[in-house]
Amino acid sequence: MNQIEKAKAFAALHRKGDPIVLYNIWDAGTAKAVADAGARALATGSWSVAAAHGFADGEKLPMAVLVETAKSINDAVDLPLSVDFEGAYSAEPQGAAANVARLVEIGAIGINFEDRVVAGEGLYPVESQAARIRAIRAIRAMADGRDIPFFINARTDLFLAESDLSKHAGLVDEAIERGRAYAAAGGNGFFVPGLIDPGLIEKICAALSLPVNIMMRAGAPDVKTLAKLGVGRISYGPGPYRSMMEKLKQEAAAIYSLL
C-alpha cells in the first residue's frame, strides 16, 4: 500500500462497536512481530519508545530519534503506522505542524496529540486550549495539503491525571466538551487514557461523533465489552513493553542465579 491507501485503510478501521485493536510497539523488531501476529495496523507508544532508548516519557526522547525510529518501523512493515507524538514537541501551532510534517514525510499516517502541558504541569486551561485546537487544525491542513487523510487521535489526559477513580465521573462533562472541540477542529479520534469505568466510557462514546480510544490497563473492561460500549479504538500503551522487559529480566535472573 502507498501512504494514501494506508491512511484511508487506517481511518476505516475505526468503527464504533467494532474497534481497531492496537498492540503498541516501539521499534522495527516489535513491529514485525506484531504484524506477523495478525495486526492490521501499527501504533507506537511514547513511553515505550522513550524507555527503549533509555529516556523518560514526556518528550525527553530527542525528536530526531523518534522520527528515525518511526521511519525504521515504516520501512520494515507494510502496515499503516500511527505515532504517539505527545504534544508534537511544540506548544506553538506552526511548530507543531512543522514537526508533524516530518512524520508525514517518513510515511506515518497518524498521530496521538495530547492536551497535557508536556513541559509544565497539568492540562492546558480553557483559555489556552484554543491554541491547541488551532494546532490540531494546522496539522490537519498541513497533512491535507499532501493529499493524505492524516488521522489525528486527539488525546485528553483528564482521567490519566486523576488517580482517584471515584472522581472520574465528575470529569466526564469536561471530557465531552473537549472531545467536541477537537472534532470541530479537525480531529479524527478521541483518546481518553486512564478511563476504565464501563458506564462512563459508554456515556462518552454516545455523546461524541468521534471514535473513542480506550487504553487497556488493570481494571479495564475486556475487548468484547469495550466494543459493546461503543468504543472505536483500543490500545495497550506501555503494557507490552513492560511485559516484555519483565520477561527479559526474569529469564536473565534465572541464568545469572546459576553462576
UniProtKB/TrEMBL annotation:
The keyword Lyase applies. SUPFAM superfamilies: Phosphoenolpyruvate/pyruvate domain. Pfam families: PEP_mutase. Keywords: Lyase, Pyruvate. It comes from the Bacteria. InterPro entries: ICL/PEPM, Pyrv/PenolPyrv_kinase-like_dom, Pyrv_kinase-like_dom_sf. GO terms for molecular function: lyase activity. This is Isocitrate lyase/phosphoenolpyruvate mutase family protein.
